[in-house]
Amino acid sequence: MTETTSEPARGSRSRGSKAGKGLRIERIHTTAGVHPYDEVVWERRDVVMTNWRDGSVNFEQRGVEFPDFWSVNAANIVTSKYFRGALGTPQRETSLRQLIDRVVKTYRAAGEKHGYFASPADAEIFEHELAYAVLHQVFSFNSPVWFNVGTAQPQQVSACFILSVDDSMESILDWYKEEGMIFKGGSGAGLNLSRIRSSKELLSSGGNASGPVSFMRGADASAGTIKSGGATRRAAKMVVLDVDHPDVEAFIETKVKEEEKIRALRDAGFDMDLGGDDITSVQYQNANNSVRVNDAFMKAVEKGAKFGLRARMTGETIEEVEARALFRKMAEAAWVCADPGIQYDDTINHWHTSPESGRITASNPCSEYMHLDNSSCNLASLNLMKFLHDDGKGNQAFDAVRFAAVVELVITAMDISICFADFPTQKIGETTRAFRQLGIGYANLGALLMATGHAYDSDGGRALAGAVTSLMTGTSYRRSAELAAVVGPYEGYARNADAHQRVMRQHADANADAKRVDDLDTPVWTAATEAWQDVLRLGRKNGFRNAQASVLAPTGTIGLMMDCDTTGIEPDLALVKFKKLVGGGSMQIVNNTVPKALKRLGYQPEQVEAIVEHIAEHGNVVDAPGLRPEHYEVFDCAMGERSISPMGHVRMMAAAQPFLSGAISKTVNMPESATVEEVEEIYFQGWKLGLKALAIYRDNCKVGQPLSAKKKGDRDTAKGAGEQGAEAEKVVEYRPVRKRLPKGRPGITTSFTVGGAEGYMTANSYPDDGLGEVFLKMSKQGSTLAGMMDAFSIAVSVGLQYGVPLETYVAKFTNMRFEPAGMTDDPDVRMAQSIVDYIFRRLALDFLPFETRSALGIHSAEERQRHLETGSYEQTDDELDVEGLAQSAPRQTSLPQPAGTAGAEPQAPVPAPKEAHSSTELVEMQLGLNADAPLCFSCGTKMRRAGSCYLCEGCGSTSGCS
């Protein structure tokens, strides 16, 4: 960046250059003389958040102010999570303006105090640009910033912490205390236990040491207690052990043994679901475990050689093991219970900018922050979709110039925050101020790739992801070098200058060697190359302000704040999303990225509309009209009919890793059918491809997961990886039995009109057990429509008599769209998308209990009116019971009983669907899947993966570090 004191031209590369004693800041989005708040339309909203399981109100604040383009979900989460002040008091924040001002003005004041800006005018531009970027959801700081900055409480800005523990009781007890204080503040911490001597070594008193695994029990119990003492999320922690530690096998097996205990207790009738009453009796459930492997071990695995386990105090080899056998144990354990993950020690330290100050031995709980012990990292993430330029005709470009400008702005703000931040321990504060570790990252990569017509698992997708990541980190270090010229390099730089510059050259070389694929990634690579050249030049001259610049974090709550479709580096969850509506209610929509992708791929508007309609109905693109099979992969998602392969996730991580200071928070999901050998291959390829860390999760491998497809009494057939080849038990097949109706049966006949088409429906029921058959009469006898309706009636009736629940039919056939459709003459169902849609809504109202149909979103006119008046659909005691109505209805014999079909294939009972409250639950309903994810402790909705953590779309809670 050119050094100049003259007024820079708008958009020139002299943005942020040194002028006098501070930075000159040029405008990116704002206009001189106009505040960003004055350029948007504001509106007042009521935020009422409930737990759908019991209807209780979790949070309520009315009359809050947000821009009109913010979604209901984003406004709800920001209001409930980030607004400060006691509810109901004048001190409570009531507007997004107050929240942004509280944070942004604090950053500006600190920047002015510490000499970051050339003039007050530059400070004002900085404030306005920062406010604009947050207001328009271009980026977000991590959650602790919104919690704490500008308040009277300690101004903690970091979400990620690394602790240390030595081989002494005093240090171990300090570990418990420090970890507890971090958990209490809602953050997470990680540490390496490898300094603690093993159980195979002697104490100075002559007895055997306890070993690190024993001390893990105390820390786990502490974490569980702090979590249950008021937090609505689990305590997030990471425990790492080196592969050459003599207790490594015991460490690997800790969770495997506990998983066996969970299965035994579950089979004995105890409540072992996540959050269940009895799960707390099981140990080691509050931490992620990872084994830290080195190149020597991985080469021994590759060659089939032995590997030495070393004493902690003397370093001598006390035992030799088969490397492949130990590696196999890791894979088997991960296959059974998802732990341990793996961290690649030599790769991590090869990219370490400050090795003279100590090795990197551990990570934060989500594995993206890796640096010195007793340090922290504050995060911020950019919304990549905000930088995709689309002219509406299918011509797209990633705005690399504006992206780089925003990165410079955000990195400047993040560095300023360290000047005023508070830290949970003195040691962490000292290390962080000395090395000033930052973690800029991004969200919405999956949406960006799909919108640009790239498959997530493709060369083009990986090239664009790599280019964006390289530009982000290169720009960050360029700004860090510029900041070093203004306010000085980090304290530890002089000692580590050679190593830091070596790592910068490694990044630049990786950028130069990267594969260019198409017209979207090539310009971004060009901008990144320019940035890295500046980094090398300015770094030699000025040094660097920050020892670390970038990571890829889960972006859980802040991803919802920015209305991102995808979190971090993750692909899209599914093609159909759950969307909350202003004024209450919800709807399912096809992702907005799908039409953009289709336009990019050259489809015409009529084709786009037809494909989108197919996706809305089926949830996937398979057999979509006019969609070429070679384009299916563009729409592959994390779940569904076409899900991305595990290696597809690993290859995407490998595309981004060379351009990150830290690592990547991501779990590689594997199907339940995956083998131990496949887990081994994933862990091995992670090393070969240069990743720093990797974790896998095999679907349904854990017992402690809610909503499992298995019944409590089912015998589990996958207790361990070693049983995969065991002889299968004898399978007893149960077939449904048809229950015919008696000769005389109660019934209801309904006449109806849908879009001008008239018809009659007769629904007959068992005297004491609900609906048993349906007759439909439309058009003249002998017509095609009449024949199809007769056949449809017989099929549904036989299914009902074989035990298929009515609610299953209702879930499948409501919202089916075809002509005739439109207005009806039924006050309870005023609009219908088809005759079938109307029929099953009417049957639900007549035969299903209120709770069941309410979960399906079907209510009578009276119930809807009650909801408008009272906010509740609930029935009162004096309302007519639907079963009583069915049983007292006059017998109807005017139409013949359908003939039985003796040769018909019986239908197996299907679990009754539920009302969707999140995108994960919507995918489950639409695709018939069972997403292996926990329920939110706060609002009861099913969470979805965000990196190595889980995120609740309903209230913004996360299962790990923010």
Automatic annotation (TrEMBL):
Keywords: Cobalamin, Cobalt, Disulfide bond, DNA synthesis, Nucleotide-binding, Oxidoreductase. Residues 158-697 form the Ribonucleotide reductase large subunit C-terminal domain. It comes from the Bacteria. Residues 1-23, 707-728, 888-917 are annotated as: Disordered. The keyword Nucleotide-binding applies. Residues 745-845 form the TSCPD domain. GO terms for molecular function: cobalamin binding; cobalt ion binding; nucleotide binding; ribonucleoside-diphosphate reductase activity, thioredoxin disulfide as acceptor. SUPFAM superfamilies: PFL-like glycyl radical enzymes. Pfam families: Ribonuc_red_2_N, Ribonuc_red_lgC, TSCPD. GO terms for biological process: DNA biosynthetic process. The keyword Zinc does not apply. Its cofactor is adenosylcob(III)alamin. Residues 47-137 form the Ribonucleotide reductase class II vitamin B12-dependent N-terminal domain. Catalyzes the reduction of ribonucleotides to deoxyribonucleotides. May function to provide a pool of deoxyribonucleotide precursors for DNA repair during oxygen limitation and/or for immediate growth after restoration of oxygen. PANTHER family: RIBONUCLEOSIDE-DIPHOSPHATE REDUCTASE, VITAMIN B12-DEPENDENT RIBONUCLEOTIDE REDUCTASE. Belongs to the ribonucleoside diphosphate reductase class-2 family. This is Vitamin B12-dependent ribonucleotide reductase. It comes from Streptomyces carminius. The lineage of its organism: Bacteria, Bacillati, Actinomycetota, Actinomycetes, Kitasatosporales.
